[in-house]
Amino acid sequence: MKRETWRHIAIYILLIGLSAAAMVTATKAVTYMCQLEEETEETTVPETTKDTSLFWTRPNLIDPPKELIVVERLQDTVGAPEATEEPTTEELTTEPETEPEIFTEEATTPPMETETAAASVEKTEEITQAEPVTAQEPAPAEVPLYSCHGLVLDPELQRFAYSLLEGYGMVCYYEYFLCQAYQESTYQADQRTLNHDCWDCGLMQIREIYWPEWSAESGIVGDIMDPYDNVRMACYILSRYWQSTGSIAETISLYMAGWGGPWQEQYVSDVTSHLPFLAKIN
């Protein structure tokens, strides 16, 4: 029994000690909290000590009010600066006086459409006054002019022969024609040569007895001794041979022998031998 009693006593004492310790701890906690509240009150600035100012309400950007609302907050603490007089709502809402509008000439200028129409009319007048542009024909190609062994056939005759050969589609024969004219007459338009009781006449030494026949065939009517008529008939005869053979050498040979004549190898060789002595003069 004694052990049980002492055990209860010890437990009781222990509980009392724990209760006392708890009370001491709680007391310290309450004291600490009170101190904190006092310090907070000392450091906190009351609302009445704040500077008094006028706060303007932010205008409503979507639907602004007709008048501005002024919210005035007064200061109640001692020693606060005196409130200054603020403008009233009527003064704030009063619009400043505007100067009367002065209408100048710029204000009465015509609209852009009128200016654009005037500009288009001026451009149209400029276009109508401008001279019409005509298509220019390309300049004719320059005819190459040559000398042969230092002798020069009349340049006008060279251009005339070139145009005739071009018309017959045989421009490639032009240089051979100049060599052949040199071989026939050495560029002497008035030369006459008696050949087997027949006269060969002019620059290209055309047979006089065949002139009427070729004139009727070609329609070329003229004087066999005229250099232009002589060149015109010679180009016609050469074109017949060229169109039949398509060969420069055969054309040269047929000009000497005629249809059915023998091959004129020496004549062809003599004519072509002058090619290296052609020298361009333009």
Question: Explain this structure to me?
Answer:
By secondary structure, the protein is mainly alpha-helical. The protein has a domain at 149-280: Orthogonal Bundle (Lysozyme), CATH 1.10.530. Helix content is 48%, strand content 8%. It has nine helices and eight strands. Helix 4 (155-167) runs parallel beside helix 7 (227-245) and helix 8 packs across helix 9. The protein is rod-shaped, with a radius of gyration of 65 Å. The termini are far apart. Residues 45-81, 89-94, 102-111 and 130-135 have low confidence and may be disordered.
List the helices and strands and how they pair.
Blueprint (H helix, E strand, L loop, with lengths): L1 H42 L10 E3 L13 E3 L16 H5 L18 H18 L16 E3 L2 E2 L2 H13 L6 H12 L6 E3 L4 E3 L4 E2 L3 H8 L8 H19 L2 H10 L7 H8 L5 E3 L2
Antiparallel strand pairs: 1-2, 3-4, 3-8, 5-6, 6-7
